[in-house]
Please model this.
Amino acid sequence: MKDLLEYLVRGLVDNPAEVRAVEVRQGDRTTVLELSVAQADYGNVIGRGGRTASALRTVIKAAAAKDGRRVFVDIVDS
Model:
């Protein structure tokens, strides 16, 4: 899931080299992905009204559901 999230976000930002996703395990079947990007790219990742962030979360949750896992995406300041 981490690789998928980084791949999707790199297509949205101006500085793809600064995209980082960190996996934090919250149990045996639950994972939190903490996403950080360059300061200037937060607007691109969040999107107008949070629509882009919501779409990213939906795609990651759907991909994780195929494996029977729960994955949450948090966009954090670096």
